[in-house]
Design brief:
By secondary structure, this protein is mainly α. The chain is built from five helices and two strands. Helix 2 packs across helix 4 and helix 3 packs across helix 4.
Length: 98
């Protein structure tokens, strides 16, 4: 089958690791994935929970739940009440199993 999809939005690019797509995205709530992608797109940082909520049209409680989920998965770490992306391959969660 040939190429039949053309990306019309390829002007600015945010790279998402294949490991995130294969191992994390597939089991996460879609709203949580939006929060992760928003933070990733912003260089791994976000000014506040309120800023993320406003940008994604979520409640602050929804964003907090997403941040806690990703922190528990070992994908990001909250420092000084601000999300800071610490995605590594393999994840810290995987390293503790071996």
């Amino acid at each position: 089958m040939g190429n039949f999809i053309r990306n019309c939005l390829a002007h600015g690019v945010t790279v998402v690791s294949n490991e995130f797509i294969d191992s994390y995205m597939t089991k996460a709530n879609g709203e949580y994935v939006k929060v992760y992608l928003y933070i990733l797109r912003n260089g791994g940082k976000a000014d506040s929970v309120a800023a993320i909520a406003d940008a994604l049209n979520h409640t602050e409680a929804d964003v907090r739940r997403a941040l806690v989920y990703w922190e528990q998965e070992g994908v990001l770490e909250l420092a000084d009440n601000r999300p800071c992306l610490l995605y590594t391959s393999p994840s810290p969660r995987d390293r503790s199993v071996s």
